Amino acid sequence: MFTRKDFPEDFLFGTATSSYQIEGHGFGGAGRTHWDDFADTPGNVVRAEHGARACDHYHLYEQDLDLVAAAGFDAYRFSTSWARVLPEGRGPVNTEGLDFYDRLTDAMLERGLKPCATLYHWELPSALADLGGWRNRDVASWFADFTEIIMDRIGDRMWSVAPINEPWCVAWLSHFYGAHAPGLRDIRAAARAMHHVLLAHGRAIEVMRAQGLGNLGGVFNLEWASPASDEPEARHAAAIYDGIYNRWFLGGVFKGAYPQIVLDGLEPHLPQNWQDDFPTITQKLDWCGLNYYTRKRIAPAPGPWPALCEVEGPLPKTAMGWEIYPQGLQDFLIRTAAEYTGDLPLYVTENGMAAPDQMRGGDVHDPDRLSYLAAHLEALRAAQARGVPVKGYFVWSLLDNYEWSFGYEKRFGLVHVDFDTLARTPKASYHAMALALRKDQNR
Ligand code: FCB
Prior knowledge:
By secondary structure, the protein is α/β, with parallel strands linked by helices. It is built from 16 helices and 13 strands. Strands 1, 2, 3, 4, 5, 6, 7, 8 and 11 form a 9-stranded mixed sheet that branches. β12 and β13 form a beta hairpin. α7 packs parallel to α9. The protein is globular, with a radius of gyration of 20 Å. The model has no long low-confidence stretch (mean pLDDT about 100). Bound molecules: beta-D-fucopyranose (FCB). Beta-D-fucopyranose binds next to loops. The site of beta-D-fucopyranose has 12 residues, from loops.
């Protein structure tokens, strides 16, 4: 088992959450979001569950932040809901929403926690979805305006800020696979979202630089693509998957170029003059965040581009059915620094696993979660030993929460949430983290 002393003195440990997954979007005057619409559409979400109450973090945030602080975490990665601040996405501000994030920020600081904000973690206001959402180029300006409003209020107290959580999920998962809101399965919509999400990222960075804010970054989810066989066709399919998932976004932001292997399929569907947006997309960043969970084994498949499919792998799996593959984290940290970010600080901004509850008496046992976290921290240290500047690690997640299309069924928390009573019960993994992070004994 790791302790703090295994890591450099300035290494940050944190835990992460997101607004729609925990706050309770029915409270405090928040506007409707495309996740509410998606959940209301039969077949999209397990039991058609939505985030109206979630963990009621909106009212219980002080006790939740007490838990973050008591575990010994240094930082808390949270997100701000666009529709809570601007119920129609633009126009009138919901002051209750701004007040909430103001209180939340001060409550973090009072507990000695570094506030790490993500401005968009997927709850697009429905009014903007009506206008085409991420398919509409104007989304970048709407998002820039939201950025200005929320950061005017809390930006002065943020330790770090990233505009958008996981552009691949915003674009590809939601517009090509249709697995997340708005649930489209349309290559043209997907291509536009793939580009507009990065344009919006860049516009938000520009706005925050103009506001004088620093320590700005981006948060990318990366998934290792292993060819399902040694055949050249399988390698090619895996390279396309890697291109769409990983290299498109890192390439756009850090190199001002999209990988040709993806342009082969998407170029006809990109908006006109897309190349002209790279000066905005490549706004200089201060750090890069990687969210890492798993790998996929990829095989060629019949049909139109990208002509690939996922094949079940042999490794042990989490409750999400995701293979446990810590090597991928090490390889990504090394590859990202070598090919994209150089000396820029890297953070693992999300890592964790869903595991079923094992309640015994009043205790929640989750030994698999602890092994998962320890194995990934080991992989992180291996990358550090190779000289990669990894400066922090955030566990996903503090609380069991609304796991998107899986509803409340998949539990990622260090802290168990009873969704009837909303009682919070720290799990064994929480207690083990608290022990590992203690400063007095471990330094
Ligand atoms: C990430 C998301 C987060 C959560 C975890 C399991 O892709 O950022 O909201 O769903 O996966």
